[in-house]
Amino acid sequence: MTGMRIGIVTDCYPPHIGGIETQTYNLAQQLKQAGHQVEVITATRAGSFVGRRIEDQIPVHRLGMPTIGFTPMNPFAGPLFRAIFPHFDLLHVHIGVLSPFAHLALQVAAQRNIPTLATFHCELSTWAPIMRASGFFDRWVEAGVLFSGVSSLMNSQINQVLQPRNRRNWPIIPNGVDTNFWTAPEPAAQIVGKAPQEKNSGGMPAESSNRGGVSSFEAVSAIRLMPRKRPLALIKFTETVNDLLGERGNFSLKIFGEGALRPLLRRQPAVTAGQVSLPGREDAAGLLNAYRQADLFITLCLHESFGIAAAEARASGLPVIVRSQSPITDFITDGVTGISAGSDQELAEKTTSALLDGSLRKMQENCCRQPCPVSWERCLEATFDAYQLTKTLAAH
Q1: What pLDDT does 185 receive?
Q2: CATH for 5-176+376-395, among 3.30.160.340, 2.60.40.10, 3.40.50.2000, 2.60.40.1510?
């Protein structure tokens, strides 16, 4: 695809920290490297600055208002949008849980007949009945906006907020993962702490004291410690697996992250006994260090749109343990590169069996041999396909 002038519109952007912020920042950088002229339009302020400036070689329009708690918003940005948007060949609007800035951008883009792609980054099922009845999103589809989601789950949920006449098979644009970083050899990734594991000639971990079929197993998770992420369920899962293992093995879990539930989690028996540890938040290098020393990655969250932490763990070579309702199943295969099941109890039973019969070891080998299906190469390919479809739709 030849170079285009692309405007990325997002309520949330660095210095805020989160999934949409990380994805939109990296997408802008990737598009620039691919030869496109990219500018970001955001409601997120950086201190007191408002206006346009170059940040990491990308022009960023920061249009947010002063708000309590630095909430990114500006309900009066319409005139600014009308001045900025005509400079672009295409707009890529990113929508989260509450995105009034992005919704206003869609309205202006539709009025100006600018080719527009909208990517949903959040679950929509909670609001689906209200949105469908109001026709809120139908008007954008009927104005020529192309919708997309970050996973197959989002594809189906987008249709839930639309009237039947506007439903279709929407493009899926998965989040990008820097597989060069997550699959890097340990010295290049500057792994610290535990001594590097020996690798065999195929680049896979050699047998060690905590690898497949032996008695001690270490799992990791990286989540925000909040109810929606189900950290209490992770602790219960760990207790269940240890009950099922009995004297045949020991299963421990490290939950990386911070959040409001931390004081409650610290009082749980499995935490006080050392079965589960709460190391706090880690940066990418720290997580990669932990992943190199672990046997598997677990998340039990049922309400997420993609699962970026699980994708990074999978890219690092870890099997991923997840509920079958999760969109994470888009990039793992049950029994091959991870384990999935419909309930916490069934998942604990399947995980225990894999620990005891040695099949976990085979999954680890598969994860090292098979490239991670989530990468920036795949993300950009899907993005460019969606851009082409957006331009075609606008031309008609």
Answers
A1: 65
A2: 3.40.50.2000
Q: Taking a C-beta distance cutoff of 8 angstroms, is the pair 146, 118 a contact?
A: yes
DSSP string of 80-149, one letter each residue: HHHHHGGG-SEEEEEE-SS-HHHHHHHHHHHHTT--EEEEE-S--GGGHHHHHHHTTTHHHHHTTPEEEE
Three-state secondary structure call for residue 229: helix
Tell whether the model's pLDDT for residue 58 goes beyond 60. yes
pLDDT confidence tier of residue 44, bands split at 50, 70 and 90: very high
Asked, colleague to colleague, whether 5-176+376-395 and 179-369 share their fold, the answer is yes
Q: Report the SS3 class of residue 376.
A: helix
CA distances (Å), origin 250, targets 186, 195, 213:
27, 21, 12
pLDDT above 60 (res 203): no
pLDDT above 80: residue 198: no
